[in-house]
Amino acid sequence: VQLQASGGGLVQAGGSLRLSCAASGSIFRISAMRWFRQAPGKQRELVAAITSGGSTTYTDSVKGRFTISRDNAKNTVYLQMNSLKPEDTAVYYCNLAYQASDFWGQGTLVTVSS
């Protein structure tokens, strides 16, 4: 499995970005997908997750602002980020979880200026 993340960039506070993560292989539709982020000097944290059945969870700091979704026909997971804040600045990583295995994308940088 290979994961290719895209969509990061520089945005002003209050703006929006949509991250995409395209997966290769045939297990995407039966796998949970997650977005993590890692800010400078901080540990990687789980931001949002979506199960193979479409159930979603979010960390408290992004609830109401971020939306995770998936398109199984395109083997792609998205993270719509609205009302961005400077504290959302981080490298964002997509993750595919299947049984006991984890696969990671290369990360995409999101910078939110105040």
Which characteristics define this entry?
114 residues; 11 strands; 7-stranded mixed β-sheet; globular; 4-stranded antiparallel β-sheet; single chain; mainly beta
What's the layout of helices and strands?
Elements: E1 3-6, E2 9-12, E3 17-23, E4 32-38, E5 45-50, E6 56-58, E7 66-71, E8 76-81, E9 90-98, E10 101-104, E11 108-113
Parallel strand pairs: 2-11
Antiparallel strand pairs: 1-3, 3-8, 4-5, 4-9, 5-6, 7-8, 9-10, 9-11
Give a verbal description of the structure:
Helices cover 0% and strands 54% of the residues. The protein has 114 residues and is mostly beta strands. The model has no long low-confidence stretch (mean pLDDT 96).
Query: How large is the share of residues in beta strands?
Result: over 45%
Structural class: mainly beta
What's the β-strand tally?
11
> What's the rounded overall pLDDT mean?
96
Q: How would you sum up the major sheet? A: 7 strands, mixed
Overall helicity:
under 10%
- Rg, alpha carbons: 13 Å
Low-confidence spans:
none
Q: What best-fitting shape do the alpha-carbon axes yield? A: globular
End-to-end distance, in Å? Answer: 37 Å
Instruction: Give the SSE string.
Output: EEEEEEEEEEE
In DSSP terms (H or I, runs of 4 or more residues), the helix count works out at 0
Quickly describe the structure.
By secondary structure, the chain is mainly beta. It has strands at residues 3-6, 9-12, 17-23, 32-38, 45-50, 56-58, 66-71, 76-81, 90-98, 101-104, 108-113.
